[in-house]
């Protein structure tokens, strides 16, 4: 079955739907001979066919199919035990090899199903992952100078209504829609802060989450410099601008560049994403930067091709035309590497930079394509990873979409990436060189005095911050964020191959 083509699969089910075996009419009937008998096969409902299809495509494309997924003469011998699509996929994932590092116990904790509807972009053809819905903000709880906890915006996505409205990372939300007070009492008398009123905290969190789904958001925020703005934002679908921020740190002896990438969106046909990335790296080249800080703190992944594009901007002369990455795939995909674009990738240096060191700022949100970028550069460049904890998320595998019956998209983990040193087993994340550097959410991206950026500058440009004026009134040592979970944490996207 793994070596059968997709057209055979649909021929098979056309026969099922007609409840007739017309095998003699097929030019190549080997697939049917393995999946049918001489008796008439009973009609399958659309729901049953969908579950059968999930089994078929997972078995065809899964990275672990050769060693873990059983072949059946009849697809429904596997699927008939399950009542819905997710049960089938969960059962298939449970068959992949065990991995003690995961609480789920098996390697495949990533494959998933995406249901389609009439408004879905996938329902009309191409799966367009470069769009997002909403306001583009992610929020935490932090303590400000007044000694109270408030909602703090720790991430603003480029291209979003919030970004276009001037909302920034580090903004304190003072008012939201009809709520004029979103403060939460805390107790910091012991040196560690605790929420004094859990019910009040729950109320504030619920108001934030509710506002994220409302059609209109009236929001009042205070910037780090103390200024206050009020905005009326509309919930909308927007094109993601993956370059959240870029900056230069200039000295007489050496210049350093900074770029914050929120995700890896498609780069094609001189689109917005390509133009912004090209502009940033050309600006770095114009200023002859020697070191580069790449901020991937909230980058959950994206397109493999986009990460390759950026890797080619960063790579030095030493890595030009050298092996960048190799794909590990199952037997079927290996035999069809060219068709599915799984051939080895070599660096094609497209930038003008000759960097000494690249500093990557990471958190547990740094995943997939973001980890891939770090991993492929390591064999050729001086790479330093600075983390808010100890490592990145840990997702060296990726997928491409398979649309089924115009109703569901299956995203089966189909490949693992390895760098030129054949390393790709960072299932628990890439280990950081410098650990437990506080992700200080009260300062914006690019601020040289923000803790993680300052840590990179301490190594690259010693005394840089001592020789520059402070950019904001807010002290980086006055109050730290409360040790509570983010209100709306960022979800991983994965390593996405284009269809």
Please give a structural write-up.
- The chain has 499 residues and is an alpha+beta fold.
- 25% of the residues lie in helices and 22% in strands.
- The protein is built from 14 helices and 23 strands.
- A six-stranded mixed beta sheet has the order 14-23-19-22-15-16.
- Strand 8 and strand 9 (228-234) form a beta hairpin.
- Helix 3 packs parallel to helix 6 and helix 10 runs parallel beside helix 13 (369-377).
- The two termini are 21 Å apart.
- The relative contact order is 0.13.
- The model is unreliable at 3-40, 118-126 and 470-484 (pLDDT under 50).
- Count every beta strand, where a strand is a DSSP E run of 2 or more residues: 23
Return Rg in Å.
25 Å
Would you tell me which CATH topology of the largest domain applies? 2-enoyl-CoA Hydratase, Chain A, domain 1
- Low-confidence runs (pLDDT<50, min 5 residues)? 3-40, 118-126, 470-484
CATH architecture of the largest domain, please?
Alpha-Beta Complex
Tally the helices: 14
Any descriptors?
single chain; 499 residues; five-stranded mixed beta sheet; 23 strands; 14 helices; 25% helix; Pdz3 Domain; alpha+beta; disordered N terminus; 2-enoyl-CoA Hydratase, Chain A, domain 1; six-stranded mixed beta sheet
Q: What's the structural blueprint in terms of helices and strands?
A:
Blueprint: H1 6-18, H2 30-34, H3 46-61, H4 65-68, H5 76-79, H6 85-94, E1 112-115, E2 131-134, E3 137-143, E4 149-156, H7 161-164, E5 172-176, E6 186-187, E7 194-195, H8 198-213, E8 216-222, E9 228-234, E10 236-239, E11 243-250, E12 255-261, H9 272-286, E13 291-295, E14 301-303, H10 304-314, E15 323-328, H11 331-335, H12 337-340, E16 345-346, E17 357-362, H13 369-377, E18 382-387, E19 397-399, E20 402-404, E21 408-411, E22 413-418, H14 451-460, E23 494-496
Parallel strand pairs: 12-13, 13-17, 14-23, 17-18, 19-23
Antiparallel strand pairs: 1-21, 2-10, 3-4, 5-8, 6-7, 8-9, 11-12, 15-16, 15-22, 19-22, 20-21
Helix pairs in contact: 3-6, 10-13
